[in-house]
Recover the amino acids of this structure.
């Protein structure tokens, strides 16, 4: 019966590690997705603001191009 208890302990330990890794990777994935969405959305919002000004007749509106780092 010791082997059954050892197998149960091994199973529980492996299951806990898998759940921990799954939750950790999910958190990392969400953080990376949020970071990527900010990198894309900030310049897009600036472009929309400039386009709105141009539509309103302000042809002096400018977009500053920068490299994302």
């Amino acid at each position: 019966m010791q082997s059954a208890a050892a197998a149960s302990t091994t199973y529980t330990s492996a299951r806990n590690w898998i759940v921990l890794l799954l939750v950790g990777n999910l958190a990392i994935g969400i953080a990376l997705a949020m970071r990527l969405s900010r990198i894309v959305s900030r310049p897009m919002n600036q472009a929309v603001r400039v386009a709105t000004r141009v539509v309103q007749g302000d042809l002096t509106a400018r977009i500053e191009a920068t490299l994302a780092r």
Remarks:
- The CA atoms of residues 5 and 11 lie 10 Å apart.
